[in-house]
Specification:
Blueprint: H1 8-12, H2 18-27, H3 32-48, H4 52-66, H5 68-71, H6 77-93, E1 102-105, H7 113-119, E2 125-129, H8 132-144, E3 153-156, E4 170-175, H9 184-197, E5 198-210, E6 216-218, E7 222-225, H10 227-236, E8 240-243, E9 255-260
Parallel strand pairs: 1-2, 1-4, 2-3, 4-5, 5-7
Antiparallel strand pairs: 5-9, 6-7, 8-9
The structure holds S-adenosylmethionine.
S-adenosylmethionine (SAM) binds near residues 73 and 186.
Length: about 270
Amino acid sequence: MPKDARSPKKLRSNRAALRHKVTYALRHPERVGPYVRRAGRDAWLRIKHPDHVGYYRAVMASDARRNPEAAVGSQTHDRWLALGQMQFEYLIEHGLRPEHHMLDIGYGNLRGGRHFIDHLDAGHYYGIDISPDILIAAKKTLTEHGLQAKLPHLTITGDLTLDFLPDDHFDVVHAHSVFSHSPLNVIEECLSHVGRVLTDTGFFDFTFDRTEGTEHQVLREDFYYRTDTLLTLARGHGLHARFMADWEKRPHGQSKIRVSRSPLPS
Ligand SMILES: C[S@@+](CC[C@H](N)C(=O)[O-])C[C@H]1O[C@@H](n2cnc3c(N)ncnc32)[C@H](O)[C@@H]1O
């Protein structure tokens, strides 16, 4: 993460604004070519897949075939390792125990998932993702880390209604770097259904790209929300919701919100 990713200036910048793009291009001319190529590819994928999930699945297919670690947002293997460890340590500090049942939404190539699978009792990890290509990469990670005996469930989903999952089942639901790639209707779909699959004492943690300025998106790949927008959305679906200030101390560019059916001790 760049050191200033959460500086007041960065939190207010609008990456979709022409002025921002021009300034950025002048400061980083070497990134203009790759950006233009990505914008061209994405424009074509959006024509082929007008719905967001279909479009983002195609983005993941294209990225994961080249490099699954980069496809989940880690430019180096060391960063991939660090990001997985960071997710795991945070949930351990927040009480994740082996007997818990966990739902990992958007498991990617198991950057964080491999730690959760290792920690939890066999069969207690359930992962869903929209991308068949990332499922193949996830199975490779699972094999490389010798986690077969833990029998995790890894499956593909087309939406976030969670309708194939049981009531009152998951102690922890987790979505890391998923809503940072999601328009509001996808987030709302998840928030309107997640309460049903959570236990009464369970919680759902999700990260998001925070802005304190204008909400915006870049190439429909990266979405920036104000904290209040997401807290209000969750509360509108009868959930308790709070901003996780302790996550802000971690070297990660995104912020975190926790929602639950019942009020949780802070
Ligand atoms: C940046 S990666 C993060 C992977 C993993 N959570 C981690 O942090 O290592 C985002 C993942 O979310 C998946 N994804 C994006 N939108 C999704 C959605 N609406 N439902 C489920 N998965 C989604 C993508 O396919 C991708 O594997």
